[in-house]
Design goal:
By secondary structure, the protein is mainly α. The protein has 13 helices and no strands. Helix 5 packs across helix 9 and helix 6 crosses helix 9.
Length: about 375
């Protein structure tokens, strides 16, 4: 799974790199798959804390914070320093405050940034969406199976319907409480991709899949119903009614759930039998999260010195090379400093914890 997660992060980096020439936004597809993978792995992770911690909810939150925030903060501070002292970008105090808090970035269209300012970590909005899911997960998993299935069905159905509408968000509200610019955005943009309310259905889809395929606590049919709904929408409903290319990234979101998600399930199930060098897989898995966070820094540095030339393949290769080098550096920080501290705090390491005979394989490299 480490190699697959690296490929998904690479898709995100490529989709943001000048000169890639992609006809489809594979970055959006990869983000949807990341959400599903997080749902699967975080379900397993929380069950570990239920088995090993007297305060599983608090321990789970603490572990997630230590796993994600230090590396994110390091990328953010380095990016701010480079943007201010090297490139000379305009920075927004309000934006920096929101980036430090992270959670406000889950609602990127609500906050009015100063004109011309830049984000230190543009991809952090999806990390904020994940944090919302982490907060809800312990309560979701402690609900009854029927309740979990019903919640997932409802959120995924609303998610599909939200992508169907290209009408402005304000069309559906008698009085729009948000910024005027936000109310003018397509519903498919705001609710289909940006905000955590409906995309959380993809996370919960991942939890149901884990419970069906791994812990066997759930029948398989709810997973097949959710997947079938997205697949039918992707292949039949959306193309047949002409809204598959609605803004924003509807085609790519449906592609991610319809194609990349089943690939992830196949890898999870076949992982013990795959002939993959575990050291190489771990190395690539450890690069996925830093690459996802830091690639914009590499892109902006190269574009600053070489100019924004969308058709220049040299700039394209340079951007990816710098992004990969930055990912290696931030990955070393994660492995040498953050992870040992995280294992010490939670009281069990990546190899020591077991639940129902399973090790923490894969959890060690979570995004």
């Amino acid at each position: 799974m480490g190699s697959y997660r690296f490929i998904l992060a690479l898709f995100v980096a490529i989709s943001h790199t000048p000169g890639s020439g992609l006809m489809s936004n594979l970055g959006a597809s990869s983000v949807m798959c990341f959400y599903f993978i997080s749902g699967w792995l975080m379900t397993y992770s929380f069950r570990q804390f239920e088995a090993h911690s007297p305060k599983p909810v608090f321990s789970f939150y603490e572990d997630r914070f230590i796993r994600l925030y230090p590396t994110y903060l390091a990328v953010m501070l380095v990016s701010l320093a480079v943007y201010h002292f090297v490139i000379g970008y305009a920075l927004s105090p309000m934006r920096i405050a929101a980036e430090l808090l992270l959670f406000p970035l889950g609602y990127p269209r609500l906050i009015g940034w100063e004109q011309g300012t830049v984000a230190s970590v543009p991809t952090a909005w999806s990390l904020a969406v994940e944090l919302h899911f982490y907060l809800a997960l312990p309560f979701f998993l402690r609900a009854g199976l029927k309740t979990r299935v019903a919640i997932t069905f409802a959120l995924c159905a609303l998610h599909i319907l939200a992508m169907k509408s290209a009408r402005p968000l304000g069309y559906w509200l008698p009085v729009c409480p948000f910024r005027e610019a936000t109310c003018a955005l397509p519903t498919s943009d705001v609710l289909g991709m940006d905000w955590p309310f409906l995309t959380s259905g993809i996370f919960f889809f991942g939890t149901l899949a884990h419970e069906a395929f791994m812990s066997r606590k759930l029948a398989l049919w709810p997973v097949l119903v959710v997947y079938g709904a997205y697949l039918f929408t992707y292949l039949v409903w959306a193309p047949g009614h002409g809204w598959i290319f609605n803004p924003y990234n509807v085609y790519d979101i449906l592609l991610g759930v319809s194609l990349l998600v089943p690939l992830a399930v196949c890898i999870f199930l076949a992982e013990p039998r795959l002939r993959i060098d575990p050291r190489a897989d771990k190395f690539l898995g450890n690069l996925a999260y830093p690459l996802f966070l830091s690639h914009f820094l590499g892109i902006n540095v190269i574009v600053h010195f070489f100019g924004k030339l969308p058709d220049n393949r040299f700039v394209y290769v340079q951007c990816l090379a710098i992004a990969f080098a930055l990912a290696v550096l931030f990955s070393l920080l994660q492995q040498k400093v953050v992870d040992p501290f995280r294992y010490w705090v939670r009281g069990f390491g990546e190899r020591g914890a077991r639940l129902n005979g399973d090790t923490l394989r894969g959890e060690r490299s979570l995004a």
